[in-house]
Amino acid sequence: MTISSGQFEQIAASVTERTADLLSAHVSVTDERGVVVASSARRAIGFTFNDRVVGSGREVLRIPIRLESRTGEVIVTESGRGDAVPPKVARALIDLMISQAAVVAHLPNGYELKNKFIHDLLMDSFASDDDVLREGQVLGMDFSKPRAVILIDASDFVLAAGDGGTHDADGSAVRRRVQSVIASIVAFFNLQNDAICGYIGNGEIAILKASTTRDLVAWHEQDNERIVVSPSWANLSALKRAADALFGRLRHDTATDLCMGIGRYHPGVRGLSRSYRDAAMALTLGKRLYGRNQVHCLDSLGIAAFIGVSDEGTKVDLARHLLSPLDAEPDLLLTLDAFFANNCSPSATAGAIGIHRNTLSYRLDRVTTLIGLDPRHFDQAVQIRAALLLRSFHTQAA
User: Fold this and answer.
1) Burial class of residue 252 (count of CB atoms within 10 Å of its CB; 0-12, 13-18, 19+)
2) Do the domains 110-301 and 5-106 match in fold?
């Protein structure tokens, strides 16, 4: 079996991503023309190798790479962080990465193996984190970074009938369409291991997206970022913006209806199954309430998230997240309790807690600014009230 152009680039991306982290160095792979096909310095991809583009450190190692009819080089340059790895160790490590990635690329059912692994991971079918890490390494997947799940319903595109309404008996057309969607996703995020993708059936594609601040820096808006206490909600705003941008790209590339659900980050490799459940629930509820061609997340579904989500822990987490900006504002919490106890009547509320109506109006405006919901609007008031009750019940039970 020969190595195709796509497989060569896949192997190059895997080798680059994994060895750059292990060596604490800049790693690039060039093809036979000297053009960079994968690099830890993303701006270098597509250009002839130039150490001024890749980094300011000196070049420390070049290793020829030959895969069937394709040739190129792995080039390592200093990054200026961490201790330098001896060239002999670096060479051995890179040779191992190339061999391992090439073996996976040659597997006749490598596509199915990868999809099955991701499906089993999201369904929490592994006995331990060690099992996940071991099998993921064999398949060339890096789980050293925190990741969250973006779930894409691309069924209108992936499961579409062939020309003349013909049935895809052997699944080859579905596979081609899935691979074209995944190719668009990988191109959007630039590096393959930044977004590990798998087809989990029924027209759905799961993205295991690296979700640290560094991985989402292009989508951070520092002035507008909400300060969060729980790591599960950290960087979620940036992840939403990344998903929105990706959604536009995929809508253009597929020219069909799509829908996305976004999951929160949960600690540990097997936390990805919890992130998947968040994403799947957001996707299901979002489609039912608002239809297709939208991106959904639990914290943007309003009162539907408190009604439609069956897991009590998720609802309590959502309530705490929603109300967290008020934790340092006891006067605002007192005002909300009084406002709801007095049937949302401004005059009765002001009288009950002994403040002027203008002061009440200021406090309610302040609540709206902090949590993004206005207690004077019915649907939003119901959501705030439900969150207050859930948090109160949980605190009392504890």
Assistant:
1) exposed
2) no
High-pLDDT (> 70) share of the chain, %: 85
pLDDT tens per residue across span 331-350? 999 999 999 999 999 999 99
Rounded CA-CA distance 71/30 in Å is 9
* CATH superfamily membership of 110-301: Reverse transcriptase/Diguanylate cyclase domain (3.30.70.270)
Fold of 5-106: Beta-Lactamase (3.30.450)
| Averaged pLDDT score across all residues of the chain | 84
Portion of the chain with pLDDT greater than 90, in percent: 42
Does residue 162 carry a pLDDT above 70? no
> Is the pLDDT assigned to residue 276 strictly greater than 60?
yes
Distances (CA, A) of 367 to 320, 326, 349, 364: 15, 8, 15, 5
Domain boundaries along the sequence of the chain: 5-106, 110-301, 321-397
pLDDT at 170: 56
- Contact criterion met (CB below 8 Å) for 230 and 317: yes
Distances (CA, A) of 124 to 55, 265, 277: 40, 15, 10
What CATH class does 321-397 carry? Answer: mainly alpha
Helical segments of the chain, H only: 5-23, 51-54, 87-106, 110-122, 129-138, 155-158, 172-189, 236-254, 271-290, 303-308, 312-323, 330-341, 346-353, 357-371, 378-397
